[in-house]
Amino acid sequence: MYFRKRNEEPLPKEQTEVWECESEDCIGWMRKDFSYEKHQNCPLCGHKMRTGERLLEKVPPPPH
């Protein structure tokens, strides 16, 4: 069998607002767009989360 990598262009990146866990021992984070709450608790460890920004791939719009 022969497998070939597709020559797809990488998705553009943009600054995205996220929730980041305040705990030193946890690496939990999630996009703020995917949250409905103004104050978030970490789903991994239960600590409070703070707002931040990360350079992430832009989410493509859903197909019609």
TrEMBL record:
InterPro entries named among the record's database cross-references: YdjO (IPR025916)
Top-level taxon: Bacteria
Record's protein name: Cold-shock protein
Organism field: Bacillus songklensis
